[in-house]
Structure to design on (287 residues):
């Protein structure tokens, strides 16, 4: 039986979307799945180095790895009127060249931030350390991601929503593409199609059994938040729109790539549909 390792972030939405497999609700013939959790920037760096066959990434990273990885259509996270938050201590005013902590160079929020605040002095750190760095005065502001957008300290306030920056740059009417999964192109095509189908089923089953799965995650201390916050968070980032990419989500990802290319973050302009796993291959092969 082949062992397949899936690398994802330790935040609640990634865990929720994977654990239908971990708990044995979904399986794949002749395949044993295992998982490893790392912060998103480490996963981005691992994807650049080709460490894993299946790995969670920030959407903003994808054009840098498009020759080595295909984007999966499932386990995606978008913002719809919400997203990462730029926070600071209450009552403070940020200077033009304020010092800010971001969760990683290749994250979507970092790219959008750098476009919106070209004079800011950026330092990168693990996303779990950003809130405390602002409270301790090590930085003037920080961009919060994952569950911390719901649980940050009462001494902090929002300077600006990343959603608003996205709306200004994209022209509005599109969800904010944050993260998804990618699969190594060297995997045989039939096997890659099976992997994507299995992961899609896992996310779909997780959504259909959200209450039961959430309870199991909480009982096993697999998430860092309480039950009400978990419920709220999953509706933001592991919702019904996470099961399979929609046409509007394709448009949003392509707009993100267009913005990045326009501002010099990418050497080439890519269109996400051109890099997907060609699922029609299986039908054609056996027709």
């Amino acid at each position: 039986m082949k062992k397949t390792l899936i690398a994802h972030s330790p935040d609640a939405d990634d865990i929720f979307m994977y654990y239908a497999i971990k708990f044995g609700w979904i399986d794949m013939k002749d395949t044993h799945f295992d998982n490893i959790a790392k912060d998103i920037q480490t996963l981005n760096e691992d994807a650049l180095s080709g460490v894993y066959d299946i790995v969670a990434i920030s959407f903003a990273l994808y054009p840098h790895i498009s020759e080595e990885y295909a984007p999966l259509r499932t386990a995606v996270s978008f913002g719809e009127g919400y997203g990462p938050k730029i926070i600071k201590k209450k009552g403070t005013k940020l200077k033009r060249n304020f010092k800010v902590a971001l969760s990683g160079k290749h994250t979507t929020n970092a790219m959008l931030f750098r476009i919106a605040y070209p004079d800011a002095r950026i330092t990168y750190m693990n996303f779990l350390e950003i809130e405390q760095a602002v409270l301790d005065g090590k930085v003037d502001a920080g961009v919060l991601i994952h569950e911390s957008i719901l649980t940050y300290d009462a001494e902090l306030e929002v300077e600006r929503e990343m959603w608003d920056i996205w709306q200004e740059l994209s022209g509005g009417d599109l969800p904010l593409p944050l993260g998804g999964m990618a699969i190594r192109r060297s995997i045989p095509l039939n096997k890659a199609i099976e992997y994507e189908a299995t992961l899609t089923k896992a996310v779909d089953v997780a959504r259909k059994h959200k209450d039961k799965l959430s309870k199991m995650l909480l009982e096993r201390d697999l998430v860092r938040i309480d039950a009400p916050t978990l419920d709220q968070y999953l509706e933001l980032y592991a919702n019904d729109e996470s099961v399979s990419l929609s046409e509007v989500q394709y448009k949003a990802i392509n707009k993100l790539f267009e913005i990045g290319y326009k501002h010099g973050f990418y050497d080439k302009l890519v269109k996400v549909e051109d890099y997907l796993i060609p699922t029609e291959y299986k039908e054609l092969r056996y027709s």
User: Anything to note?
Assistant: The chain has a mean pLDDT of 95. The domain at 2-78+176-285 is CATH 3.40.190.10 (D-Maltodextrin-Binding Protein; domain 2). The longest strand covers residues 176-184.
